[in-house]
């Protein structure tokens, strides 16, 4: 069975990125002195995730953990419990990822290798321009300019979330008027970057069964690559199944899903063609790899959801590297000019690709001097 993991140290760190974004991290140390750093950014649920993590560690203190799935079984939590509790899903996902990281280090393997993949120097990314635009002008011109910046840096796929003005419920008569600015933003991107760059559109669950197909028909004029979460997949799967059968483009989603079974159901029912497990919420890096491997076997596709900080991007990079055939990985571009410095060694994104370190475990940790300068550290 090998030597298990028994965490004996826990510290937290956070960095305020913008008025809209704060990245939160946990650093866990086991009895052999091996350290795993995970991201636990969870929006309004971050504070509760920080509170829950030491409670979970205390509950696991008596016996070592031998694999990431042991964490959930030892804590007596079901996938259904965690699907309904984002803070708890975040805490346990971070803990499960940390277990995988330390086990990989004990074997002298990178997370990619530990998950059964072959070491890859770089993995492809797509550029999510929305985080960059959250605190800036959101005109069609601004969207187009942000997309053009990303293309000039080597990204061949761009994602945007353009539908600020839409809030359900709506009607078939009103929806195209409400969505008009969003449709214009996408059209401006297409005009700026030309026909050969893929555009992905994230709807942030702002539509309904009777409105989503009407908007999708308009977006089709701009030749979009996927239609992401027109409705919430885990909240209204029946509607999403029907929408997927009515629109001409690929439907993607599942960023809030927990556990492989959830993602299997999304693919098997035809609700989505592309699953988007987020390692911060889905059960951690190993569970994301299991879900992705299963989706590929079922004839679907996988593209991890990763609009957050450099720790979660690198964790997701290892997952992507361990999934031959996966689609490009999400990267939130231009949110902070100093982003790369948060990692040691620094994050390397070049020509639309992420460099994945080959050292044991994650291959990087937090740059403590940057955390001290820009953020804070604390113990529970």
Defining traits:
380 residues, alpha/beta, ten-stranded mixed sheet, 16 strands
Question: What layout of secondary structure does this protein have?
Answer:
Layout: E1 7-18, E2 21-30, E3 35-39, H1 46-59, H2 68-75, H3 79-83, H4 86-106, H5 111-114, E4 122-128, H6 130-133, H7 140-152, E5 157-160, H8 175-178, H9 180-193, E6 198-202, H10 212-219, E7 226-228, H11 237-246, E8 250-253, H12 260-268, E9 274-275, H13 285-297, E10 301-302, H14 310-321, E11 329-332, E12 343-344, E13 349-350, E14 353-355, E15 365-366, H15 368-374, E16 375-378
Helix pairs in contact: 1-4, 2-4, 7-9, 12-13, 13-14
Question: How would you sum up this structure in a few lines?
Answer:
The chain is α/β, with parallel strands linked by helices and 380 residues long. It has 15 helices and 16 strands.
Whole-angstrom Rg: 20 Å
Number of helices: 15
Kindly state the number of beta strands: 16
Give average pLDDT, whole number: 97
Proportion of strand residues: 15-25%
| Class derived from helix and strand content | alpha/beta
Proportion of residues in helical segments? 25-40%
Main beta sheet: 10 strands, mixed
Task: Walk me through this protein's architecture.
With 380 residues, the protein is of the alpha/beta class. It has helices at residues 46-59, 68-75, 79-83, 86-106, 111-114, 130-133, 140-152, 175-178, 180-193, 212-219, 237-246, 260-268, 285-297, 310-321, 368-374; strands at residues 7-18, 21-30, 35-39, 122-128, 157-160, 198-202, 226-228, 250-253, 274-275, 301-302, 329-332, 343-344, 349-350, 353-355, 365-366, 375-378. The strands form three sheets. Strands 4, 5, 6, 7, 8, 9, 10, 11, 13 and 14 form a ten-stranded mixed beta sheet that branches. The protein has a four-stranded antiparallel beta sheet with strand order 3-2-1-16. Strands 12-15 form a two-stranded antiparallel sheet. Helix 7 runs parallel beside helix 9 (180-193) and helix 12 (260-268) packs parallel to helix 13. The model has no long low-confidence stretch (mean pLDDT 97).
């Amino acid at each position: 069975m090998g030597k298990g993991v028994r965490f004996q140290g826990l510290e937290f760190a956070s960095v305020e990125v913008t008025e809209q974004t704060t990245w939160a991290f946990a650093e866990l140390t086991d009895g052999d002195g091996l350290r795993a750093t995970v991201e636990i950014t969870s929006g309004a649920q971050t504070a509760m995730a920080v509170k829950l993590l030491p409670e979970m560690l205390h509950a696991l203190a008596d016996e070592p953990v031998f694999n990431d799935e042991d964490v959930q079984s030892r804590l007596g939590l079901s996938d259904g419990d965690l699907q309904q509790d984002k803070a708890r899903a975040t805490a346990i996902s971070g803990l499960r990822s940390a277990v995988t990281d330390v086990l990989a280090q004990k074997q002298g393997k990178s997370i990619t290798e530990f998950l059964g993949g072959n070491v890859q120097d770089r993995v492809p990314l797509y550029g999510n321009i929305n985080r960059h635009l959250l605190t800036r002008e959101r005109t069609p011109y601004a969207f187009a300019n942000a997309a053009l910046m990303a293309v000039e840096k080597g990204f061949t796929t761009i994602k945007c979330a353009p539908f600020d003005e839409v809030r359900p419920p709506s009607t078939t008569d009103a929806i195209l008027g409400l969505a008009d600015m969003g449709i214009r933003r996408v059209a401006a991107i297409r005009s700026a970057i030309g026909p050969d760059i893929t555009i992905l559109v994230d709807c942030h669950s702002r539509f309904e069964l009777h409105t989503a197909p009407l908007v999708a028909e308009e977006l089709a004029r701009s030749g979009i690559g996927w239609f992401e979460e027109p409705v919430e997949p885990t909240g209204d799967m029946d509607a999403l199944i029907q929408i997927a059968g009515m629109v001409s483009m690929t439907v993607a989603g599942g960023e809030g899903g927990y556990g492989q079974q959830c993602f299997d159901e999304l693919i098997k029912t035809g609700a989505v063609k592309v699953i988007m497990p987020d390692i911060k919420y889905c059960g951690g890096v190993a569970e994301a790899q299991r879900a992705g491997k299963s989706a590929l076997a079922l004839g679907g596709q996988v593209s991890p959801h990763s609009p957050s900080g450099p720790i979660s991007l690198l964790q997701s990079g290892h997952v992507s590297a361990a999934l031959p055939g996966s689609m490009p990985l999400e990267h939130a571009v231009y949110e902070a000019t100093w982003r790369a410095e948060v990692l040691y060694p620094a994050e390397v994104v070049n020509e639309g690709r992420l460099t994945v370190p080959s050292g044991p475990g994650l291959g990087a940790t937090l740059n403590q001097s940057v955390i001290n300068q820009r953020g804070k550290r604390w113990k529970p």
